[in-house]
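This part of the workshop introduces the protein records we will be handling. A record pairs a protein's sequence with a compact description of its fold. Comparing a sequence with its tokens is the quickest way to learn the format. The record below serves as our worked example for the rest of this section:
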Amino acid sequence: MISEPLTVPGDGLVSVAYAALIERGALHRDPAQLEAAGLLDDIARALEKNPRNVGFLARLFDAPAKVTGAYLHGDVGRGKTMLMDLFYSSVAEPRKRRVHFHQFMDEIHVGIAQFRKKAKARGDDSDPIAAVVKPIIKTSRLLCLDEFHVHDITNAMLLQRLFEQLFANGVVLVATSNVAPDGLYKDGLNRHLFLPFIELLKANTTVAALPAARDYRREKFVGQKVYAIGEGDAARARMDKLWTRVTGGVEARPTSVESLGRQIHVPLAAMGAARFDFADLCEKPLGVRDYVRLAHAFDTILIDDVPQFSRVRTDAAKRFILLIDNLYDRGVKLGASFAVPIEALGQDDKTRFEFARTASRLMEMSSDEYLAQALRDTGPPEA
């Protein structure tokens, strides 16, 4: 754990990218964020200087020095996601992966179940953890986990065995969380069995708090109108302006979010925000679990060109209702352009009642009170 101020050289790739955001006015200089940027610079340098060789003989005769990862924690809006974005895009390590913690654990559970099913058929009693760790070690030297949070006893009892093997094989962990390691699985059932994992985590990462004095995520929305009514260039320009404010002008790129073994395409993503056309979200075969995934993957979502709904758009209307319900429950910030005023969106008798609730939620989601709230901890997204 950090006990003394870190020396921040300012010339590492993360620090340089952070300084560029300050220079363009996207961020205010924050000492805690500067310190964390320096820590991430050190990790990037160590990974570059100590490449991990995956061959057995290479590991035997040319073992790389251990690289200590990082665990960044702080309240919502303290810049953890932003710093992870800068680090992940800057680090040169080719075998890297970034994933939401709960999605990662879902994959582990699926892998264990599949291994056990096959092992039972052939009378094999091998360790399933070793089997699921093997492909991770092969493909990911750097593992970046967003929103590290332990809710249930199943994950709590698994983490020690899982990360013992990952760390022993040179996997470097960089994680973000709303809680310090000692607060993980607080008051959980049989928590004393979980405590060795906390010590393992602290032994393999530098724990850095981000006690920033300002909530930058909320400040993006102060005094902003998050909805545009109408169609065409004027509405698009309003949304472009909001998107620039939300992302700080950082270059947005396409990405994807995994859900139930499928990839949900995200046309634009940056700084914890995502931007979609309405058709991307509601005219494709997405369901409630997909929307839960998106609500956990991003703290802000912008949607362009929400139409007025009619009988010919019943399926799209139902998906839109589900989407808004899940964003609202999680506390995700919403920006959107609507073809007509919100109260006139739902014209289909089959969904009129549901739309009344959706309209109410949309109005609340544009209020200063909602925009000032933190994300709600709704637990892990279902597999």
